[in-house]
Amino acid sequence: MQSQVASARATGVAVRFEGVTKRFSSANGSYTAVDDVTFDVPQGSFTTVVGPSGCGKSTLLNMTAGLTPCSAGSIEVFSEPLSGINRRAAYIFQQDALLPWKTVAGNVRLGLSLRGVDADEVRERSDEWLRRVGLSEFADCYPFQLSGGMRKRAAIAQSWIVDPDIMLMDEPFGALDVQTRRLMQAELLRVWSAARKTVVFVTHDLEEAIALADEVVVMSAGPASTVVGRYPVRLSRPRDLLDIRTDPGFVELYGSIWATLRDEVLRSYASGGTD
């Protein structure tokens, strides 16, 4: 595992947060969501971000996507300052962005079609991605005909088919039941392992964060949330996500991170923090 992280770092930094601060203005004054956030995401790595409700995890992801600008500090993407929409990233939101009037195949093909890719290539690549995520038999179905897990698989194919350098994921499996969530985590790691894109994955679930990641970044309670811990995950890959939670290394790391996160969760609860 250490050699994998070292290799990722050797290829460069995909995303660099340098003193990133985000303030929102309202009729009641100014609110600081995140304050002086600084860390690097190595190219090809899987980084998870955890923290209590209301700590600005989604805000950080939105700034990385270029959906909202920093109030102070800077974000670099492959050594270039980010200005406007991050064209090198794709974003999977908490709620999937499947269009209800399009079939599964139509949704998966959408990104390529909007980019003007030749129709034959669009078909070929979408067929391949539907096969990868196990939805070939459901290509002509509509989103309302799919289970929650199948919709998430379609959303993964929809986002990854455009071959982004960076995948941003905001609580993508939060609404799924435990069994389906484990299966989707394994599916995500399988797809990531084949392509080794850079992933920044936001979650409330510390177990999920450790099971997936090369590094776990812990945010403090808000307002003015900042990074209070960074924990490399030295569990070997590929990972058996059904049994990994009983691995002594997993248990030890969970205890170390929870010792930091617990205090922040209690602070957030005491202040009534919410997402």
Q: Could you explain how this protein is built, in words?
A:
This protein is an alpha/beta fold and 275 residues long. Helices cover 38% and strands 24% of the residues. The protein has helices at residues 2-10, 57-65, 104-114, 119-132, 148-160, 178-195, 206-212, 248-271; strands spanning 13-26, 29-42, 46-50, 72-77, 80-81, 89-92, 166-170, 198-202, 215-219, 227-232. The strands form 2 sheets. Strands 6-7-8-3-9-10 form a 6-stranded mixed beta sheet, with helices on both faces. β1 (13-26) and β2 (29-42) form a beta hairpin. The longest helix is centred in the last third of the chain and has 24 residues, at 248-271. Residues 1-10 have low confidence and may be disordered.
Characteristics of this structure?
275 residues, alpha/beta, 6-stranded mixed β-sheet, 4-stranded antiparallel β-sheet, 8 helices, disordered N terminus
Large-scale geometry: globular
Strand order of the largest sheet: 6-7-8-3-9-10
Largest sheet: 6 strands, mixed
Radius of gyration: 19 Å
Instruction: Estimate the mean pLDDT confidence.
Output: 90
Number of DSSP helical runs: 8
- Give the amount of beta strand, in percent: 15-25%
Name the helicity range. Answer: 25-40%
Order of helices and strands: HEEEHEEEHHHEHEHEEH
Give me the secondary-structure category: alpha/beta
Weakly predicted, low-confidence segments: 1-10
| Beginning-to-end CA distance, first to last residue | 33 Å
Number of strands: 10
